[in-house]
Amino acid sequence: MTGVFKAVCFWCGEDTGITMPKENYDIKTDGDEAILSYVPCAGCQTKMNAGITLFEVTAQPETPRPEIMPGFFPTGYLFVVDEAAFIAAIKHDHVDTVLAQRYAFVPTEVIEMLGLRKKKEENDG
Ligand SMILES: [Zn+2]
Fold first, then answer.
1. Distance 19 CA to ligand 1 centre (A)
2. 3-state secondary structure of 113
3. What is the pTM of this model?
């Protein structure tokens, strides 16, 4: 395969403006657009800079996409929460780590428990 892929943001689906040689990827698509990484686009990064980003993940893949970290498969949903609200809501040993790195990988069940998203069954229905 020759030519270049136009990289699309995994999180929002927007064109990132980045192109990469198709020969570098084992992606089967007839088109020129592809998700090449989990790196957020400039627009998503700007939104993420406003607070703490919670990336929703599952323990098992829901799509053929690779892990974002070992054992964590991103669903594509991310939630930017206010730092003070995050500190108030989360009682966890790793809060300081999350505050330092500005993001966390959060299981779907916890996302639903926090009220950030309706249960999947309700969304799918
Ligand atoms: Zn984006």
1. 15
2. helix
3. 0.84
- CB-CB contact of 102 with 53 (8 Å): yes
**Residue 18 CA: distances (Å) to CA of 13, 21, 38, 46, 71:** 13, 10, 13, 17, 28
Ligand 1 centroid–CA 47 distance in Å is: 9
Q: What are phi and psi of 42, to 5 degrees?
A: -60, -40
The tens digit of pLDDT for each residue in 54-72 reads 999 999 988 888 999 999 9
Confidence of residue 123 (pLDDT cuts 50, 70, 90): low
CB atoms within 10 A of CB 18: 15
Separation CA 41–CA 25 (nearest Å): 19
